[in-house]
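Q: Please design a sequence for this.
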């Protein structure tokens, strides 16, 4: 049932798990340290209302931080049932922190970019990057999944994770057409700008936007092809001094064919 839900909608949520809560308890202190580390100052964005924190958590390939357990629980058990994910190493987690007022305008960005962040939650496909001065889009990273693990309690709409249900199918179909007849080694050389923009428009027009929030010990999983983002900080949102702090794991795969073709 959970597998079908994930394949149909492109996301699933996992209830409280003591194994995951043990990991959160161990990860919270080093996660906090990443935010205050001067070496990570570059990760603050939008008037310091978002700490991006990509790959800053000092975990090992099993997810362990110093003195803590490996990353375990129902979410990890489920992920290993998905094609191509029977065995893999974890990347260093992103520590994504939002604060009241997210997002503020950023110097040098256009009004259109700011409106997209406000009105469309900065919706994106992970791994599809802007390249060059003209910012054309190329698929440069092939993530297995996006696993979100809240590290602190929040209330209200504290910049929740946003996903468009079924978007993974629209994006997956568009990528299959774009890469048809090409070898895997050529995929990251294909300019996907217009193809992606057209597919994303279809997503916005036809897919339901869903906000996902969870508490420490819970988790949510997004399909690797999904369009997702992060909502603005809501007027009803409440959080402690840590803000809204979530660890995201997005390990990459070298098996590009499974990445493209698997459900």
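A: Design:
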């Amino acid at each position: 049932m959970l597998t079908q839900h994930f394949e149909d909608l492109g996301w699933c949520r996992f209830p409280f798990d003591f194994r995951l809560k043990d990991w959160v308890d161990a990860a919270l202190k080093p996660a906090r340290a990443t935010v205050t580390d001067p070496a990570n100052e570059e990760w603050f964005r939008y008037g310091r209302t978002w700490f991006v924190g990509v790959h800053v958590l000092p975990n090992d390939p099993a997810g362990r931080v110093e003195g803590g357990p490996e990353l375990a629980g129902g979410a990890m058990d489920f992920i290993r049932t998905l094609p191509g994910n029977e065995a893999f190493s974890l990347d260093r987690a992103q520590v994504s922190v939002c604060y009241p007022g997210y997002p503020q305008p950023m110097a040098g960005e256009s009004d259109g970019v700011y409106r997209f962040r406000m009105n469309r939650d900065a919706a994106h496909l992970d791994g599809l990057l802007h390249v060059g001065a003209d910012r054309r889009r190329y698929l440069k990273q092939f993530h297995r999944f996006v696993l979100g693990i809240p590290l602190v309690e929040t209330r209200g709409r504290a910049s929740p994770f946003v996903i468009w249900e079924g978007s993974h199918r629209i994006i997956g179909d568009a990528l299959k057409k774009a890469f048809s007849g090409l070898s895997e080694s050529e995929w990251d050389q294909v300019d996907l700008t217009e193809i992606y923009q057209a597919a994303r428009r279809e997503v916005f027009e036809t897919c339901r936007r869903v906000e996902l929030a969870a508490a420490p010990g819970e988790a949510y999983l997004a399909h690797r092809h999904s369009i997702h983002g992060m909502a603005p900080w809501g007027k009803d949102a409440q959080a402690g001094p840590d803000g809204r702090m979530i660890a995201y794991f997005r390990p990459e795969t070298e098996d590009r064919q499974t990445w493209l073709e698997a459900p």
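Q: Thanks. Anything notable?
A: The domain at 2-127+140-167+202-261 is CATH 2.60.120.620 (Jelly Rolls). The two ends are 15 Å apart (CA to CA).
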